[in-house]
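Here is the promised in-class demo. Please do not try to memorize the tokens; focus on the logic of going from shape to residues.
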């Protein structure tokens, strides 16, 4: 076994924080990354893991942070031992874009044990030299890295893992971030592991340097001088070239049967959905905020306008064309007008508007939920939530499903209110001699049967609308919470959500039709 460091040293004490990975085999997408390797980081140590892009450094970090997707093509045998709270600073920050800078830190502090204070969060921002007034959408790359460090520290970790913290930064800014990492480490005595291929900036601040050799699939202790000689000899560069040219899990040819692929996708959807069936709100305030966010997403003014327009078109078309093309209107009109108008009121309320409105909800709101959740997954916000102690399914997934289940009946009833008003106005234009009061009484003839305040069948409409909302939310969450590693996976999640959700909504209406009528 290649030894790149033993466990926590005796001088650190029996209760000191540490993390250790003993890897027998690590494979991603059919490519072996490591064999018989060991890496450990003890409290007070700052260890640098270097290697070329694509050699498996970030995969190893995910293994150590327990963030490996079991269905993502990564196979690992061995064990990871850890003592102490763990934090991760992700390569692109994984900041919560829907929240402010202050709320990003508050989220981390609220999920820590013990809970962090406002004063501590303010001190952290001052420590990383970030103004509290900075907006995330206007922050530079270097500022976002420092914000990500501050958020990770707000959860009071005892082990901190950095994934490519200087990637994409110019040399001066990279050295500044490296110095900040060392400063934060020394101030807290954490076990710190930094994953990078930018060793010139970070090697000076490391206590130990471990090289991941893509040729031998091993971990080796090296010095900064060793790395410099490897660069001069071309060995390190060659390793990087070979690693970068190696096929990724995404590009490997896949000849597995279609049913196996569908089964794997179904497994992801099922796992994401099951994790969202119950609320898991560490702090109720964050659950309420998530619910409010998704409620605004699916039942905001644009959604109301969307289903309202659909209701207006449906009410106008149903009434106008029913009377415009009534056979033998000059004979049948006086005989069937009242019955036909009452039937239209019934059909609009119980059948036409619910089907159309819920189908549009499946398309518009399902796409909105899928885009929001899949985008968070791609930006690694969900992984960041897991590290901070929040449950993405129980917090975001449950809130999304709950919000659309409650919102859908409201949207359907709002759509009918518009359809009813436009339908009544359309008949009034068709037959100017009829009074508005007479039209309204006749239109509601079946709906008001029994003299109740609530329309007959209202609970059927509410029930099937709520079930449709539940189905749409479940599909959106199930297809979107699974890991997304490429932008096209986000668009696929949105497209599949729309297709599957609209089909299932029609199935729900068909099933209710047999029961209801």
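The designed amino acids, position by position:
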């Amino acid at each position: 076994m290649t030894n790149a460091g033993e466990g926590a040293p005796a001088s650190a004490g029996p209760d000191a924080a540490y993390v250790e990975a003993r890897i027998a085999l690590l494979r991603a997408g059919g490519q072996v990354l490591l064999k018989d390797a060991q890496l450990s980081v003890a409290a007070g140590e700052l260890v640098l893991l270097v290697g070329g892009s694509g050699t498996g450094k970030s995969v190893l970090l995910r293994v150590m942070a327990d963030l490996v997707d079991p269905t993502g093509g990564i196979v690992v045998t061995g064990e990871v031992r850890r003592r102490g709270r763990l934090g991760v600073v992700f390569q692109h920050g994984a900041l919560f874009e829907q929240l402010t800078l202050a709320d990003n830190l508050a989220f981390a502090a609220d999920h820590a044990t013990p809970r962090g204070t406002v004063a501590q969060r303010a001190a952290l921002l001052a420590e990383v030299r970030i103004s509290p007034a900075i907006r995330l959408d206007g922050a530079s790359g270097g500022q976002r890295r420092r914000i990500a460090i501050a958020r990770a520290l707000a959860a009071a970790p005892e082990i901190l893992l950095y994934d490519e913290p200087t990637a994409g930064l110019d040399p001066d800014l990279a050295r500044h971030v490296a110095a900040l990492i060392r400063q934060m480490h020394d101030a807290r005595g954490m076990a710190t592991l930094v994953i990078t291929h930018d060793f010139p900036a970070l090697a000076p601040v490391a206590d130990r340097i471990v090289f991941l050799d893509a040729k031998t699939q091993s971990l080796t202790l090296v010095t900064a001088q060793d790395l410099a000689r490897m660069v001069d000899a071309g060995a390190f560069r060659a390793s990087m070239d070979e690693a970068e040219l190696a096929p990724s899990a995404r590009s490997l040819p896949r000849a597995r049967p279609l049913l196996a692929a569908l089964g794997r996708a179904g497994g992801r959807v099922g796992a994401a959905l099951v994790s969202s069936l119950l609320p898991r709100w560490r702090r109720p305030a964050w659950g309420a905020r998530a619910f409010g966010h998704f409620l605004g997403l699916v039942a905001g003014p644009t959604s109301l306008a969307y289903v309202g327009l659909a209701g207006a078109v449906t009410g106008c078309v149903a009434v106008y064309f029913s009377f415009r093309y009534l056979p033998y209107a000059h004979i049948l009109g006086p005989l069937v007008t009242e019955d036909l108008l009452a039937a239209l009121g019934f059909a609009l309320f119980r059948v036409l508007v619910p089907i159309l409105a819920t189908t549009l909800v499946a398309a518009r709101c399902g796409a909105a939920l899928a885009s929001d959740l899949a985008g968070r997954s791609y930006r690694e916000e969900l992984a960041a939530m897991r590290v901070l102690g929040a449950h993405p399914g129980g917090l975001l997934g449950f809130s999304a499903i709950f919000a659309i289940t409650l919102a859908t009946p409201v949207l359907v009833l709002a759509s009918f209110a518009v359809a009813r008003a436009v339908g009544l106005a359309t008949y009034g234009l068709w037959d100017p001699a009829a009074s508005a009061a007479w039209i309204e009484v006749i239109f509601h003839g079946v709906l008001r049967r029994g003299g109740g305040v609530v329309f007959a069948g209202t609970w059927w409409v509410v029930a099937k609308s709520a079930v449709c909302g539940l189905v749409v939310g479940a599909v959106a969450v199930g297809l979107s919470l699974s890991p997304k590693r490429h932008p096209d996976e986000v668009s696929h999640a949105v497209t599949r959500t729309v297709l599957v959700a609209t089909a299932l909504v029609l199935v729900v209406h068909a099933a209710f039709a047999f029961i209801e009528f």
